[in-house]
Design a protein that fits this description.
- The protein has 139 residues and is of the alpha/beta class.
- The protein has 4 helices and 7 strands.
- Strands 3-4-5-6-7 form a 5-stranded parallel beta sheet, covered by helices on one side.
Length: 139
Amino acid sequence: MGRDGNRPIFEHLTHLVVEVGPETRFLALGYLLKHSPNLTSLELKKASLGHVLPNIYKWSAPAATNFECFSCNLETVQIKQFYGSLEVEVVKYFLKNAKVLKKLVLYLEKPLSCELKARILDEPRASAQCEIEFHSSES
């Protein structure tokens, strides 16, 4: 692990799984992305909170920052427990900023409306080679 001043650099981190909870604002994720220059794969999933309803989650993307892994290494992003409109801003963030993204995979908890699916597929992408996949969470 290298150092950036007093901050660690996770130079050997290539795959990261992040479990997020209600009101997650992705501040720690932004830090990890910025300090993981060799990250190629990121998986986001919601914490299992039992009785908590999925619509209390307010996913919001990290503040716009020039993360090294976006410009040179992040190839795959998976978002588990995707319900729809609550997570669209996170999807847009990765599509807009991940410059070498090859695949964005959404594991759906429920079927998406045709309009929402079309909206996601029509989002501008920093990577011309990025494909978006939709899968049922049961698969």
